[in-house]
Amino acid sequence: MSPVTRTVLVTGISRHIGARLASVLAADPAVSRVIGVDTVPPASLVRDGGAPSDPLGRVEFVRVDLRSPDIAQVIAAADIDTVVHMSLMSGPGGSRPAMKEHNVIGTMQLLAACQRSETVRRVVVRSTTAVYGSSPTDPAVFTEDSEPVEVPHTGYGKDASEVEGYVRGYSRRRPDVVTTTLRFANFIGPRVDSPLTRYFQSPILPTVLGFDPRLQFIHEDDGVELLRRVALDDHPGVFNVAGDGVLLLSQCLRRAGRFWLPVPSPAFRFLGEGARALGRMDFTPEQLALMSHGRVVDSAKLGHELGWAPKFTTASAFDDFLQTRLGRSVR
Amino acid sequence: MTAEEILSFAARRLSGRYEVDEFGYDAELNDKVLLELLRPLYRHWFRVETIGLHNLPPEGALVVANHSGTLPIDALMLQVALHDEAGRAVRLLGADLVYRLPVLGHLSRKTGHTLACKEDADRLLRKGELVGVFPEGFKGIGKPWAERYKLQRFGRGGFVASAIRAGVPIVPCSIVGAEEIYPKIGDLPLLARLLGLPYLPMTPLFPWFGALGLVPLPSKWLIEFGEPIRADEVDPEEADDPMVVFELTDQVRETIQRSLNALRLRRGPAFFL
Hints:
The structure holds two protein chains of two kinds. Chain A is of the alpha/beta class. Chain A has a single domain (7-326), classed as NAD(P)-binding Rossmann-like Domain (Rossmann fold), CATH 3.40.50. Chain A has eleven helices and 13 strands. In chain A, α1 crosses α6, α2 packs parallel to α3 (96-116) and α3 (96-116) runs parallel beside α4. Chain A starts with 6 loop residues before the first strand and ends in a 5-residue tail after the last helix. Residues 45-53 of chain A have low confidence and may be disordered. Chain B is α/β, with parallel strands linked by helices. Chains A and B meet through β12 and α7 of A and α1, α4, α5, β4 and α6 of B.
């Protein structure tokens, strides 16, 4: 039986999905308190261009740098029982060392605080399918127990693998706490801002010559709904989360009606560096691998164990993104 | 196709509104474009004849074939044979080299093929697909002319284990004709290593005549599907028993070798008939 009142801590609420989750939880009568932490306060949450009417509701914002041990005081002071760790950064906003420190050290501090806490009994971690990497020698479809042939050795994928490692360690040391790890495919939707959404919005899209990767997306609405469900109920384990089906990059580009420019992979990397310098996109080596070999996961376990599946398929999620962001009509 | 069909096909393709499966298989592109390019080769160049199509079970099965010809034209012809004459999309398991290379990798996925690995084989067989493998791999396709129609080693028999795990029969498939398309009379191992290729062949026409050397010789082909070998009657628990796996592997290998010998006699000379 789950207790009637809960106090939920959400990390990383300055960013879109974290903020949406916090506001959904705050609107839920079963949740007594929602505490959101981040290094910067959340931008006001407005959906569909509506008025900024108290969007975060009852969410209490606390400014905490996860890399510091301060988070332990927040958890202890508020008798937190559920922690939703959303603050993984997918791209180097500033420098790569800062991103790594934020992701890995931040998670270690948070989990250390959870381990000491008497009240925390559920931890949900947002991870990514990037932990599987992208390579030509991997199976076409990853399940949760797949071991990638080439463990990601750079960027987001590596951080997320390490984060998951710490989560496994934590769950071994605290078997009384329910831990859920969600490996999300690339988020997409009306308000998602990620390297990939920025890519699809650029005027000319570079592609890797001779490659047509398989991609998967998860719609932000589905992502928020799933996070809400695992935050409020026990669903221990690791789950892949992607919209049904796949889209080839070539299909995405045709649907988007954009110009694309196939470039040989060394030039793609060079272009990526240039784009990063301009602050437009960041094409890291792992992005290059994704744009060459793609990545597809099997989300069947999620359906079996939660009795829930994303409403948006990969294709309909992408179409929704196109419609709202690029004004492309979708037949 | 009528003009209208061609227009709607083009519109669908250009707007990206078509489906591919999780492996990247694009059935429409495969049938309407990629196989269409191979059909003249199949019908008029190699004059492929198929035997024993009734041996293909209606459900999932693992087709195991010999591999030869320096370039994997035999895989493409097997695909046309199964698609056009049996109405089946065969999902071949290919070397990772294919998926490392530009163009080849994604075309291979679009025609329904994937990497030869346990996970992909199991997944396709569980979905009831017709899966094809060439267990000889590079040892078979890259063997010298003098060893034509001599089956090479079948590796560790991973394909047999997959069939047992999935509970599907193995259909032995013998392809006669591919050995003669690019007779490999020499090898350039140093250059091959430099290019990261398993071998770089010399044939009577390649590299001496440049691109002309890439034209396959017009040998006469026969493709025979033998009686299914009942890997589906083995207890799935025994999929990791090396004894069981090796025994079945040998049985498949011997069946294909016997049928290759008989087919060669039946065909007679490779050329000018």
